[in-house]
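Throughout our pipeline, every protein is held as a single compact record rather than as scattered files. The remainder of this section carries one protein's record, kept here as part of the documentation.

===
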Amino acid sequence: MRILVTGAAGFIGFHLCKKLVENGHRVVGLDNVNDYYDPELKYARLQELGMQKSETSVFGNTVVSSTYGDILQFVRMQLEDREALPALFEKEKFEAVVNLAAQAGVRYSLENPMAYVDSNLVGFVNILECCRHYNIQHLLYASSSSVYGENEKMPFAVTDNVDHPISLYAATKKSNELMAYTYSHLYGIPTTGLRFFTVYGPWGRPDMAIFLFTKAISEGKPIKVFNNGDMSRDFTYIDDIVQGVEIVLDNPPLKENDKPAYRLSNIGNGSSQSLGDFIKAIENSMGVGAKKEYLPMQPGDVPKTWANISDLEVLGYKSTTSIDEGVKKFIEWFKGYRS
């Protein structure tokens, strides 16, 4: 397929682009390469995909080929650009879109809310309009486990009520789901929203727990443990996530009777593990004990997440990477990247 992947310089987008081209798809990656976190990590991911950082490539407005050739290209663009994005769709004739581009982070949404409005709301409507006008056969977009808010029913299921988000980030993701439903209903666009649970692995974001913990331990600094350590997460390794995205991409939802071709699914490990066990895996892999600074819960955060992934398992999805194995692979990458 001819596929657009937005957020291509991001953590999940980078891994997905690499896997898609290895499996024979033709991919255009889009990213604005903003400074929410160190852009050098984003450029390093692009260079790993064969792109070169230069004034005429990453910074330019033209589509740039990588060393993979014409099957993988990159364009730097704002998702909310209402002239450039339709022009890209017109030129490239995409069959499918994977929209991973978004302003991420629960805590950052307390500091800079307008970044979430621009990217996650205005940008997403722009994507939907392009899908509407350029005959996209399947739009797969990133939602988030954050939409479940303070839901206490475990595991989280897509049938649960998610009308009470506790962060602006979560509210924008819930809004994406509603907007996608509307476009599926009105224009017949097959859409799939994936509620990602805690994804970790090599090339991960520096604001995520495993990166923060590993960096602090390597520097002999204490790690910040929120809610006094009483937290658990559905930790999911990046390779398992990418496998799941590919499976969903190959199986678009179908219109049934009067129901639109619209689907929501959780994508995670399907189990919940304590933050203490996760920290222990990092300590074991590094061979160093962590100094811990226990702190209260952060605004917008939740004590526990756990994904019901039964609907994806029907399609053949299975998360197989253990915490110990996944953490070990991250630590190996981290040491190489830091050096």
In short: DSSP finds ten helices and 14 strands in the chain. The chain has one domain: 2-204+235-270+308-319. The first strand starts at residue 2 and ends at 6.
